[in-house]
Amino acid sequence: MERIPGSGVRSGNCRDNKQEISVEIFQIGEEIRRLMTENLLQEAPRPETGSSFTALLGLPENQAMELLNSPESYDSPAILTADIWRERGKDQKTLSYPFNCSPTFPSNAALVERAARFSIFAAAQNSPQTSSVPSNSSENSLKLKNETTDSESNPTILNKNQISLKRKERQKKGLAKKSKNMGDESSKLPYVHVRARRGHATDSHSLAERARREKINARMKLLQELVPGCSKISGTALVLDEIINHVQSLQREVEFLSMRLAAVNSRIDFNLDSLLAAESGSLTDGNFPGMVMPSMWPDVPVNGTRRQQHHNQHQQLWHVDVGRDNHNFISQPNSLFSYDSTN
Amino acid sequence: MCSRSSLEQEFFKKWVPGLQICSSLAKDMSFLERRKAIKLSADVAMATARDGKTCWSRALIANASKQEDKKIIVRTILGSEFERLTKSSIGSVVCEKRVRSKKILRKSCTTIRRVRKIRKSAPNRVLASSIAKRLVKKRTQVMKGLVPGGESMDEFSLLEETLDYIVSLRAQVDVMRRLANTLVLSIP
User: Fold this and answer.
1) Are the beta carbons of B19 and A270 separated by less than 8 Å?
2) Does B172 have pLDDT greater than 60?
3) Which GO BP terms apply (chain B) (predicted)?
């Protein structure tokens, strides 16, 4: 198979297919090369894979390690990758670090692949339209970084065959899917840019199937987090059971509360809701103070001077608040009698 | 979450006129009817707070506006948006019918396929997975019955709608509970 000298050809392929992104890639590539040659002499090579890899992502170390160790967490990478790519636009300096650690490069490739996969799926989960472009560019630039590091760091000939093979496979599938992705950016459907993993089926049907499954799994994760007590349960059927129970219990509560309100309604007129509306607008934490409620009934003997004060305050609010049915309230002394009569 | 309290506030603002209508109509209604009216007003207010973005809200409004006697409640709550929202919900109803007929076709095909498959599947692994699939399918059916308008959704959108529906239900329960508590407290 053609090896590293083909890196130029490969990036050429990118260019043939995708004009905008490839221009960007090339610019980034040039930057990288320049920075690398600059910093190759200055920076000391870092021994650990972890630190170099984190620098590659532009993340702080602990977050990147988390990314690596927990492939199931889709939520945080989404935010992180979005942030990364925003920062990336600002400063290119962070790219300079990893390219000096040539002996650690082979493991980097695997890690990079995994991280790229996270960014894909995370991008697929949240706002795929906006993040599809960053995820695209992220994969491309990651690929390109691999290529450039490979070309520059000649001493690392270990496992280069493996890496190039992987990359070929990746790129083949990546390019195939990329065209679809670019075309459908404007569409509403979230197209997931999926890579064929090594040893898995690579025809389009199973890829699409896998993408669909990943989407559904991501949604199930969100639901699990939402429903209390669901995160410990494994298995789709049981989780769905819990969700169903939760929804049913919520619906039953709504019925029960409406029954309570109907019972209360028989004794109190709902014109006082205007007051509540005024109050809730001001209250962020909406625990309706009990003192608000009974204060505005002029006829009913109200106990406590505090309520009288509120009554004076709120009378202005009444007329201001409800736009539509004001005349209802002005005529409300009649309807207030419902309180007296049914007591 | 700030979005949650804003959702609650919006729901409450939309609900208040509905409650007023309920109370004005309350004289001639029995207790059960009153309860149903209140529940309906709450549900419609919740759906309106979503402003027609989600499928379940549109389906809910469509169902509510189908019945003539409840239409007035819906109309007051929706106010100016009544026309816009009911029109879009009618469209979704039409889609439902189309989807339903497609589903009948698909079901007939899958039953044929399933009969063939059962005869073939001797290995236990395949059997276990098919059992699991059947369980999940049953539960998705149940969920489709729970979420309003769930019949015409595929799995993925069903999950999304359920997510949204749960959040809105929680907000609704919160507001209703608080209102009920304060009303009960205010009676000396």
Assistant:
1) yes
2) yes
3) regulation of DNA-templated transcription
Q: How many domains is chain A partitioned into structurally?
A: 1
Residue with tokens 């809910």: B60
| Residue A227 domain flag | yes
B146 to chain A, any CB pair closer than 8 A? The answer is yes
Amino acid at A201: A
Q: Is position B122 within any domain? A: no
CA-based nearest residue in chain B for residue A248: B146
Max mean pLDDT among A90-94, A183-187, A213-217, A293-297 falls in A213-217
How many beta carbons lie within 10 A of that of residue A332, not counting itself? 17
> Residue A253: pLDDT band by 50, 70, 90 thresholds?
very high
For A279-287, the CB contacts below 8 A with 24+ separation are: A280/B9, A280/B12, A280/B13, A281/B9, A281/B13, A284/B5, A285/B5, A286/B5, A286/B8, A286/B9, A286/B175, A286/B178, A287/B178
Domain count across chain B: 1
Q: In Å, how far is B19's CA from the nearest CA of chain A? A: 7
Which residues, including other chains, have CB under 8 Å from residue A265's CB and lie 6 or more apart?
B22, B23, B26, B34, B38
**Which of B72, B162, B185 to probe by mutation at the A interface, max A CB count within 10 Å?**
B162
Interface of B with A in 67-106 (CB under 8 A): none
A209-231 tens-digit pLDDT: 999 889 888 888 888 888 888 88
CA distance A122 to A135: 9
Residues 13-52, chain B: which have Cβ within 8 Å of A?
13, 16-17, 19-20, 22-23, 26, 31, 34-36, 38-39, 42-43
pTM: 0.50
pLDDT at residue number A194: 60
CATH number for the domain harbouring residue A257: 4.10.280
Pick the residue from chain B with its C-alpha nearest to A244.
Answer: B143
Measure CB to CB from residue A261 to each of B8, B143, B179 and give the nearest one: B179
- With left for phi above 0 and alpha for psi between -120 and 50, is residue B153 left, alpha or beta? beta
Q: What are phi and psi of B14, to 5 degrees?
A: -75, -25
